[in-house]
Known about the structure:
This protein is an alpha+beta fold. It has one helix at about 60-70, and strands spanning about 5-15, 20-25, 30-35, 45-50, 50-55. It has a single domain (about 5-70), classed as SH3 type barrels (Roll), CATH 2.30.30.140. Helices cover about 15% and strands about 45% of the residues.
Amino acid sequence: xxxxxxxxxxxxxxxxxxxxxRVDFGGVTREACMAYLPEARLGEYVLVHAGFxxxxxxxxxxxxxxxxLKAMDELSAGS
Length: 79
C-alpha cells in the first residue's frame, strides 16, 4: 500500500535547478521535491509520497491525518 503523508512547507529552495522544500510532518522534518507543485507556498500543507509533494491539502485535514498517524505510532523520527 502506498501512503502520502501531509506536512507543512517550512522552507522552499532550489537545488540543481529543481524546486525543493523542507516539510514538517508534525515535528519530523524531511526534504521533498516540489516540481509537481510549483504553486505551493510557505505555510501550506502538501501531501508527500516517496519524496515528492503531489497535492495540497487544507490545514484541518492535514492535522487530523497527522494526529491519526501519531496515534498509530506510524510517524516518528526513525520512519
